[in-house]
Amino acid sequence: MALLDTTTVIDVGKGNPRAIRAVEKAGKEGGRLMLSAVVLFELSAGSPPGIDEKRKMLVQAFGILPFGPIHAERAGVIYKELRDAGLDIGPLDAMIAAAAICEDEVLITSNVKHFARIKELKIQSY
Q1: Measured between alpha carbons, how far is 117 from 126 in angstroms, rounded to an integer?
Q2: Which of 34, 68, 99, 124 to pair with 41, CA 20 to 30 A apart?
Q3: What is the C-alpha to C-alpha distance for residues 6 and 95, in angstroms, rounded to an integer?
Q4: Is residue 63 within 8 Å of 32, Cβ to Cβ?
Q5: In sequence order, what are the residues at sequence separation of 6 or more whose Cβ sits closer than 8 angstroms to the Cβ of residue 25?
Q6: Mean residue pLDDT across the chain
Q7: How far apart are CA 2 and CA 9, in angstroms?
Q8: Number of Cβ within a 10 Å radius of residue 93
Q9: Rounded CA separation 111/73 (Å)
Q10: Domain boundaries in the chain?
Q11: Cα end-to-end distance, the chain, whole Å
């Protein structure tokens, strides 16, 4: 399994060939591709104009990983540690990272700037 970041779903929806290749490769190598419930929230709250129907189709194509208490606790620790170090990535990215860490899965993203700050997070960038 692999988790897709919000930027990845948006990039796939826009037809970004690098994002599409990364998702296809992960699907072949690791099986099921999932979205954290937090990614679903972000997509629902702020999809770029014109991508809404594509977003709906993409969301239906992937499984949704519920965001539970273990994820919330880990996200709080990540968020606090980074904020205290002056490396704030925002609560939503901390939540997405926590889901990947707690599930011991790779996060597929182009947002390396934020996610690389989390040492224990496995990232596949494109």
Answers
A1: 17
A2: 124
A3: 12
A4: yes
A5: none
A6: 92
A7: 13
A8: 25
A9: 23
A10: 2-125
A11: 17
**Fold held by 2-125:** Rossmann fold (3.40.50)
Residue 1: what pLDDT? 87
Q: Quote the CA–CA distance of 55 and 43 in Å, as a whole number.
A: 7
Mean pLDDT of 63-82: 97
Alpha carbon distance 44, 18 (integer Å): 23
**pLDDT score of 35:** 95
3-state SS, residue 35? strand
Q: In what order do the strands lie in the sheet with 106-109?
A: 63-65, 33-36, 2-4, 106-109, 122-125
Residue with tokens 């939540």: 95
3-state helix, strand, coil in the chain (%, to 5): 60, 15, 25
Helix (H, G, I), strand (E, B) or coil at 42: helix
Q: Are 62 and 34 in contact (CB under 8 A)?
A: yes
